[in-house]
Amino acid sequence: MDADNRLSFACACGTIAGAIHRATPDQGDHVVCHCKDCQALTVFLGVADCILDDAGGTALYQSRCARLEFERGSERLACVHLTDKPTLRWYAICCDTPMFNTYATGRIPYLTTVLANCDAAGCERLGPPLGHLFLEDVTGSTEGLKPLSMATLMRRFLVRMVKDYVSGDRRRTPLFDPKTLQPVAKPRRLTAEQRLALS
Ligand SMILES: [Zn+2]
Ligand SMILES: [Zn+2]
Questions:
Q1: What is the sign, positive or negative, of the torsion defined by CA atoms of 196, 105, 155, 4?
Q2: Structural domain boundaries, residue 178
């Protein structure tokens, strides 16, 4: 058994690969997000069939930016704001794989990893999802899906964020400049028209 509890990930073509360290149920949250933006992202990248479940959900693991390490290919990452909300979507430009979601800057250091790209044993270790976000956007039946509110998820993250501020970990991530906390790739922003075309 891996003592570091690595959750390994790779983009579809294998150019980008790495791991989330200490990926366990008590160090982060396994959730399924059904929001329109997560769905639109897979349409934008043309990968809805590979990522979304039958109810339009994306399986995610929310932990901390400082837990992310790349083994290769991080220069092939791009990022996009689908809307004027601060969520930044990171994807692989080599093969259009959606990979991570973060806040717009490193000031709020959460990291959400798309589990479809991760190793089965690592996903297994996360246990069943804590719940389902944005059930109002589910495509199909919501039967058997346990609701989870963003407020609950953010409360759980706040505890980790305070630790990252105290330890200085929030500045130790490959996604944001340690001094300015700005993203290492220049974010693209879709126009309202481009966004509309995805829904
Ligand atoms: Zn790739
Ligand atoms: Zn979402």
A1: positive
A2: 7-196
Residue 127 identity (one-letter amino acid): G
What CATH number is attached to the domain comprising 66?
2.170.150.70
Cα→Cα distances 148→73, 130, 133, 145, Å? 34, 7, 5, 9
The answer to whether position 31 is within a domain reads: yes
Q: Say if 2 falls within a structural domain.
A: no
Task: Return the ligand number nearest the Cα of 112.
Answer: 2
Q: pLDDT by residue (tens digit) across 47-74?
A: 999 999 999 999 999 999 999 999 999 9
pLDDT band with cut points at 50, 70 and 90 for residue 3: low
User: pTM value?
Assistant: 0.95
Judged by its nearest atom, the ligand closest to the C-alpha of residue 74 is: 1
* Rounded distance from Cα 13 to ligand 1 centre (Å): 4
